[in-house]
Amino acid sequence: MTGFKFQELKQLNHIIERLGDNAQVDVLAKVQYKHHEFPIHSVTLGSKDPKAPVLAFFGGVHGLEKIGSEVILSYMETISHLLDWDEELHTRLSKSRLIFVPIVNPVGVYLGTRCNGNGVDLMRNSPVEAIGPTKFYSGQNYSHHLPWYRGDVSNMEKESSVICNLVREQLFKSPYSIALDLHSGFGLKDRLWFPYASRRDSYPYIAETLALKELFDRCYQHHIYKIEPMCLEYLISGDLWDYLIDEFVEQPTANEGLFLPLTLEMGSWLWLRKNPSHLFSRHGLFHPLLPHRQQRVFRRHFLLFDFLHRSLINPQPWAQLAAHQKSDYTKKAEDVWYN
Ligand SMILES: [Zn+2]
């Protein structure tokens, strides 16, 4: 990749160097685009015990929304410095694992496009079909020249496949795991979405999800997130997380573990409201253009990341519910989100 101006990849390589022996670095795949190969890196920190809880970060699935990649890189940078002196973080990592895939769609991030190099929208690329009213952005099979193209869902794109495989290998086998996928562009608020994206049904871990939300609400009363199932906002086909959660619950060992995929949708309309002229720039819709606004976005989410990490190490109040708690939370969740 010499001779390339690929800022995010350069930053990632620098962080990998800083992390040194603290990290295990893997190239999950190399994506060919024109005459170049683009690597998809994963960086793993902490316990190698397959039974350790896992928090995994994914960014840049939609290349245009590269703020997701940048927020993860910024968090990795912070962690690389904390590891120099923070014994508490080392202790936490001895009991858990953090996995970072900050640039899932390297060609898209490099080109500044939503889709990958084949014109496929990776978050429409799984075989899951939406049930209910859909719109044009729910995914289409007409042409890769049009947005939201789903590609061949029976033979998913390389980027989609490596993410699914990593989740199966690392998260499905862990008793408690959370995948956090960072996007931007929808609405004024920062949203934390959980499944389903394809249908207006409650999903199997709705009780634990509500318990986790209430724990977060209690501990951080002024947090900024709107937490809801994605289907409340819109329905899509081909969502990778719906596909993975459906697969997870089909496993014979599913009730021994909990897999919670979350999407952080950073509300970029907030940045636009303050600088409406950025609407006319290519990145403006999905990316804060002013440096001070970018920095604010970087800082904004670290508290959530730390909370999720600590909640996985301490699952008692939310992921180890007694039967009566589970049924109470389920009833309440139905009222809050689905009725
Ligand atoms: Zn997105």
Q: How would you explain this protein's 3D organization?
A:
Helices cover 38% and strands 18% of the residues. The termini are far apart. The protein has one domain (7-338): Zn peptidases (Aminopeptidase), CATH 3.40.630.10. The chain has 339 residues and is α/β, with parallel strands linked by helices. An 8-stranded mixed β-sheet has the order 1-2-4-3-5-8-6-7, sandwiched between helices. The structure holds zinc ion. Zinc ion binds at residues 62, 65, 183.
Portion in strands: 15-25%
Distance between the termini: 52 Å
Biggest beta-sheet profile: 8 strands, mixed
Helix content: 25-40%
C-alpha-based Rg, rounded: 19 Å
Q: Could you report the average pLDDT, rounded to the nearest whole number?
A: 92
Structural class: alpha/beta
Quick structural summary:
The chain is an alpha/beta fold.
SSE topology:
Blueprint: H1 7-19, E1 23-33, E2 36-46, E3 54-59, H2 67-82, H3 87-94, E4 97-101, H4 106-111, H5 158-171, E5 176-184, E6 190-194, H6 206-219, E7 225-229, H7 240-250, E8 258-266, H8 269-274, H9 291-300, H10 302-313, H11 316-319, H12 323-338
Parallel strand pairs: 3-4, 3-5, 5-8, 6-7
Antiparallel strand pairs: 1-2, 2-4, 6-8
The structure holds zinc ion.
Q: Which descriptors would you attach to this protein?
A:
339 residues, alpha/beta, Aminopeptidase, 8-stranded mixed sheet, globular, binds zinc ion
